[in-house]
Automatic annotation (TrEMBL):
PANTHER family: ARYLSULFATASE FAMILY MEMBER, ARYLSULFATASE G. The keyword Aminoacyl-tRNA synthetase does not apply. This is Sulfatase. Residues 1-20 form the signal peptide. It comes from Flammeovirga agarivorans. SUPFAM superfamilies: Alkaline phosphatase-like.
Length: 468
């Protein structure tokens, strides 16, 4: 009898190990301020051979959007599967203290007409995909930019087993060492003046992959600092673009994009070299549109951020067992959809959660049609603040009472405002957006002088139309 029980335990253990090994690893590569247009196969001025090749192996979501196209809220949305507005984070996290930490729960922004408070950290009670994956037996490592709160709210407290290269700040002071103002990230390189941050992050990711020896599957979340400012490219790459006649600022940016592409390529080649590629799902996307022009899309990071140039981002997913290389999905989706998608990839089961707004992308990965739904947007910096998308149509709302309506498929550059033409459609969308706003505001906590910090923005000093 004892021998039988022992044999049974060995069989169950072997089955559990086999199940763990069969479940795919997941790698998420999240680029900062990387515009939809800034990729080689859409704009030949950018050299992105690795992303170009990855597109041939992946499913591209050609209309992927950010619910709040701004740094911190974009990250909060993807981590939780929730619209950032429902977390009361319609704006990025500012910094009150010299080390990038915060003392107040909310921040107020001087240029915001509505004076809405926005959270200064991701509350620990919010459930992240890392916490859910841990329940499924996954090992979670986080690399790079966090920008969702200072030390008490860092990844290690949000479900991740390991964090590397995490700073309190939303961007480095330089892409050449020393990188950061605080003492949290990559201090060991401070005396190595020729070391480039994107390459350090790449080496860190490769080291993790080469040395991973745990029996359970893993998810590697790599959030790049690049291509966020300060725009400092690798010197030799910058010179190449300058020699081609490009201005200094564009040469710096193009060099940063090329370095990022090289990083993606190195990670993909490492997965293949280690024979992990056939059992690893890879996701590549961005947190918002580019700081620079986003032609043919309207708007971007600095202004008209709910325009296609600010809210639409690249998104490519390769699932070795499912995706047809070079395929595309034109159904509008948002990065909140990554959360339930990851859950279904990891569990092999349909994921249902009434607490999130994200919807699984698995139907598209399997070559099936996605169900259409309304997408909602909100940010809180200026007059333009909310939007609703229904299939091809987007309605944009301003505090001043102005509305705009665009067919973003027929008019990708949003040049023809149809608000006075599509009157019935506009009226319906206005009401649905208002209903959504009321539902969102009902869950907001009161912001008071005691729990908030006021950030005064000098727009003349920055010489920018919008601050993020």
């Amino acid at each position: 009898m004892k021998k039988f029980k022992l044999l049974l335990l060995l069989i169950v253990g072997a089955m559990s190990t086999a199940f763990a090994q069969d479940r795919p690893n997941i790698v998420l590569l999240f680029v900062d301020d990387y515009g939809w247009s800034d990729i080689g196969y859409r704009n030949e001025s950018f050299l992105t051979p690795n992303l170009d090749q990855f597109k041939n192996e992946s499913l591209e979501f050609t209309r992927a959007y950010i619910p709040t196209p701004t740094c911190s809220p974009s990250r909060a949305s993807m981590l939780t599967g929730k619209e950032a507005a429902r977390i009361q984070m319609p704006r990025h996290i500012g910094h009150e203290m010299p080390d990038g930490s915060n003392t107040k729960e909310f921040g107020l922004w001087s240029t915001d007409p509505a004076q809405r408070g926005s959270r200064n950290w991701l509350p620990l009670e919010e459930v992240t995909y890392a916490e859910k994956l841990k329940e499924l037996g996954y090992y979670n490592v986080f690399l790079g930019k966090w920008h969702l709160g200072h030390e008490p709210y860092h990844p290690i407290h949000q479900g991740f087993d390991e964090q590397i290269g995490v700073s309190n700040f939303g961007h480095p002071k330089s892409y050449y060492a020393p990188f950061f103002k605080d003492k949290n990230a990559y201090q060991e390189f401070n005396d190595q003046k020729d070391v480039y941050l994107t390459e350090v992050m790449t080496d860190t990711a490769v080291h993790f992959l080469e040395n991973y020896d745990k029996p359970q599957p893993f998810m590697m979340t790599l959030w790049y600092y690049t291509v966020h400012g300060p725009h400092i490219g690798k010197k030799e790459l910058v010179q190449k673009y300058v020699d081609q006649g490009m201005s200094q600022k564009y040469a710096e940016y193009h060099a940063m994009v090329e370095s990022m592409d090289q990083s993606v390529g190195t990670i993909l080649k490492t997965l293949k070299r280690l024979k992990m590629d056939e059992n690893t799902v890879v996701i590549v996307t961005s947190d918002q549109g580019s700081f620079f022009e986003n032609t043919p899309l309207a708007g971007g990071k600095r202004y008209n951020t709910l325009g296609e140039g600010g809210a639409r981002v690249p998104m490519l997913i390769k699932h070795p067992a499912l995706t047809k290389g070079g395929s595309e999905c034109a159904t509008p989706i948002q990065t909140i959809d990554i959360f339930p998608t990851v859950m279904e990839i990891a569990s092999g089961k349909t994921y249902k959660d009434d607490n999130i707004q994200g919807k699984s992308l698995m139907p598209a990965l399997k070559g099936k049609k996605m169900k259409k739904r309304n997408l909602y947007f909100m940010r809180s910096y200026e007059d333009q603040y909310a939007a609703i998308m229904q299939d091809n149509w987007k309605l944009v709302k301003y505090h001043s009472g102005k509305f705009e309506l665009f067919n973003v498929v027929d008019d990708i550059s949003e040049e023809k405002n149809m608000i006075d033409v599509e009157i019935k459609r506009a009226s319906k969308m206005k009401q649905e957006l208002l209903n959504w706003e009321n539902e969102v505001y009902a869950g907001w906590k009161e912001v008071t002088p005691q729990n908030s910090h006021y950030f005064k923005i000098n727009k003349k000093k920055t010489n920018r139309k919008d601050i993020k």
